Amino acid sequence: MLSLTSWPVAALHEAELASRTYMRVGGRVRWLLEPATPAELALAWTTARERGFTPRILGGGCNLIIEDGLLEGVVIATDRLKRCFRPTLGGADIDPNEDEARVAPAEPGSDPRLIAWSGVTLQNLVQTTTALGLSGFECLAGVPGQLGGGIAMNAGGRYGEMWDSVELVRVLEPDGSIRDLPRAECTPRYRNGGLGERVVLGAVLRLKPSTPAEVRERAKQYLIEKRNVQPVTEWSAGCVFKNPDPAKSNGSSAGKLVELCGLKGRTRGDAIVSPLHGNFVINRGAATAADVLALIEEVRTTVAEKTGVVLENEVKVWRAG
Ligand SMILES: Cc1cc2nc3c(=O)[nH]c(=O)nc-3n(C[C@H](O)[C@H](O)[C@H](O)COP(=O)(O)OP(=O)(O)OC[C@H]3O[C@@H](n4cnc5c(N)ncnc54)[C@H](O)[C@@H]3O)c2cc1C
User: Fold this and answer.
1) How are beta strands 64-66 and 316-318 bridged, if at all?
2) Ligand 1: which atom is nearest the Cα of residue 57?
3) pLDDT in tens, 43-59
4) Fewer Cβ neighbours under 10 Å: the N or C end of the chain?
5) Cβ of 243 below 6 Å from ligand 1
6) Is the CB of 57 under 6 A from ligand 1?
7) Angstrom distance (rounded) from CA 125 to CA 122
8) Does the active-site annotation cover 191?
9) Is the pLDDT of residue 174 over 80?
């Protein structure tokens, strides 16, 4: 029997998870571990593995639906890994001496890189890079979530994606060893960072020198465009489905197929297919994970019957039990 204080990092027993996701559905997990540094994350992971668990990693919970009920095992949350700083003169260490890590103003011609731990939010990175006049992250304006989740999912859109700005990622291998993977050794794809079971501890980001005014203007435009077509302020898990191969869908995106099948506005309990964008399912306040997942299956089945296209999940689903 494990005691409540037996983990080497901050731990919560039977922690509630819904409030840690953007969709606000889901049950509890037997153990929630909350490391505060990359070293603590590695320790939490190896300790959980030694105890026979395969930990799941929770970032911002923005592309995730967690089932109702109790998830057995361990979830490791990256919320507390929030440091973001510029490389020191000596190099780009992801876990440097405390005193050396600062986000100092960028001088003309200075190193256009940033180092971030996995729990830094994507919006924090958009704001930080904008203030420094460094370009590359404005394509993620309005995309919620954290650096680790963004790298794992290769978050992005029509103006660029996460991995465009990654120079190196520090990962925890499934065996507990730590490795630095240069961009050239990685194969990110559409909404998939290609890291498999590896855990992102942090990354070195390489941006392009620009000016705060230029970056701010682009970020503002992208955000306006996004808000016009996506229900960004409502509780959702982002795009439910990946866009299908255009050759098979006659060029239609997943959202367009849902719309063509007349499914916008379809409800199940308090879950609804967004009237604004067919690829978003929204929790209107009291939806359960069961409502959301049943609605997603109804949409997938109807689209397959009517168009022959079987939509593949972009969202991750954590099953209870
Ligand atoms: C309103 C809204 C708008 C969105 N718009 C976009 C968009 O325009 N483009 C886009 O691409 N996405 C979009 N998303 C989806 C989401 O914001 C991104 O996928 C984001 O990158 C998820 O990050 P997260 O930290 O929330 O990951 P989570 O949802 O917590 O996790 C997603 C997956 O990544 C894994 N993961 C998380 N952290 C790590 C880590 N440190 N190491 C390894 N694996 C990890 C999790 O285990 C899980 O499998 C949107 C979501 C919402 C709610």
Assistant:
1) parallel
2) 47
3) 999 999 999 999 999 99
4) N
5) no
6) yes
7) 5
8) yes
9) yes
As a whole number of angstroms, the distance between CA 57 and CA 145 comes to 13
Which residue segments constitute the domains of the chain, with CATH numbers given? 10-77 (3.30.43.10), 84-229 (3.30.465.10), 246-315 (3.90.78.10)
* Sequence-ordered alpha helix ranges (H) in the chain: 38-50, 122-132, 147-153, 212-229, 246-249, 254-260, 289-307
* Catalytic option among 24, 191, 198, 216: 191
Residues of the chain with pLDDT > 90: what percent? 89
Q: Tens digit of pLDDT for each residue in 269-313? A: 999 999 999 999 999 999 999 999 999 999 999 999 999 999 999
Minimum CA distance residue for ligand 1 atom 35: 149
Q: What is the value of pTM for the model shown?
A: 0.95
Q: Check pocket membership of 202 for ligand 1, CB cut-off 6 A.
A: no
Residue nearest to atom 47 of ligand 1 (CA): 57
Question: 150 CB under 6 A from ligand 1?
Answer: yes
14 catalytic residue (yes or no): no
Residue 266 a catalytic site member = no
Name the residue with tokens 């990110």: 188
